[in-house]
Amino acid sequence: MSDASKLGASAVRNAQLIRTLGLVAVLWIASDVGYYLLLPALGLRRGYNAAPMEIAAYYGFCSVIALIAFRRLYRQWATFESRLSAYILLSVSFGIVVVFVAFLHPLLPPINWRESWEPPELMVTTPWYFLPKSIEILFQQLLIVAAVLALSAQNYSLRTISIICALLFGGTHVLLAYGGVPFGYVARFIAAAMAFGFVFPYLILRLRNGFAYSYLTHWLYYAITVILAHTISPYAT
Fold first, then answer.
1. Biggest alpha carbon distance in the chain?
2. Residue 131 has what pLDDT?
3. CA 20 to 30 Å from 32, out of 25, 41, 54, 115?
4. Cα dihedral 188, 190, 195, 197 in deg (nearest 10)
5. How far is Cα 131 from Cα 110, in angstroms, rounded to an integer?
6. How confident is the model at residue 162 (pLDDT cuts 50, 70, 90)?
């Protein structure tokens, strides 16, 4: 292949990468804008506790859009390399979700909120909160996987992919500021998102059935945050 051909092929790959990352950003921002602005404009209640079915359907629709938009990337990637291990992992993951939502969450002591501002929804969750949250996490993971696969296809190192993913995942959480919570709360979520964003590419690219591990890690963060809020936070009774 001539130097000109190599440069041309490289330019095409770079254009595809920019297009993929741009589309990931557009879909992520559009989903947040839709949640904070479109749903209330349509008369729907905003809040995972207040409208779990409606918001679950909304993020289900977003997930379908992501699957369609990045179907070529997903087709080129073996998400589950072993059927048996995939079935076991999925069964264990489903069991963790069911045990937490059905048995552990109702046993958590109530929150004693003493601030003048409205509590973040994670502080006052009901078991139904985790229905839309689980589907939202699926949507976000689909976008993360698309970005990671696009970067990996360009032969970026795992460290570089992790840094880019951390910056992107952390940056998307800036939009939490529109939820009316203090800056410190938003900053904590951004820091946590950057840490998890750094880890996700390793799980996705290096582990068998990595998507499942990445999803479960993401989901467990919210479950653990809820447990800590009810047990050792300043608002725990």
1. 71
2. 93
3. 115
4. 150
5. 20
6. very high
